[in-house]
Please model this.
Amino acid sequence: MDPVVHFEMPYENQQRMTKFYESIFGWKMQILGEDMGSYVLVTTTETAERGPNNASGIDGGFYPKNPALPAQYPSIVISVGDIKASMQQVVDAGGKVLGEPMQIEGVGPYVSFFDTEGNRASMLQPIPRK
Model:
């Protein structure tokens, strides 16, 4: 079974968004630079080197809204063992993969897809951690 390991949501105003989630939920924000697409990593649960301490907790991220991209809504990221095989399974089951995997340095290959219901989600093949 492939677990949900991350969530993503778009933002319009980075400062407003970070203030909102930090002040209400106590989430920790790590703002990445323009070279990383102005992505904001979010820690929502106590975390150790190997990931969240709470097995049911997940962390996430926010990305800037881009009117040229499809389906910019909250979505989930699913951890898979073989991203190429999972991409083929998505297509075989009637979904649509959105491009080729993007390599996220220190994390692993990542790609988004539409399921059969039009929902946008993503897959990640995590680099094994020590």
User: Anything to note?
Assistant: The beta strands are 4-11, 28-31, 40-43, 47-48, 51-52, 59-64, 75-79, 96-104, 108-114, 120-124. The first strand starts at residue 4 and ends at 11. The helical segments are 14-25, 83-92. Residues 4-124 form a domain with the 2,3-Dihydroxybiphenyl 1,2-Dioxygenase; domain 1 fold (CATH 3.10.180.10).
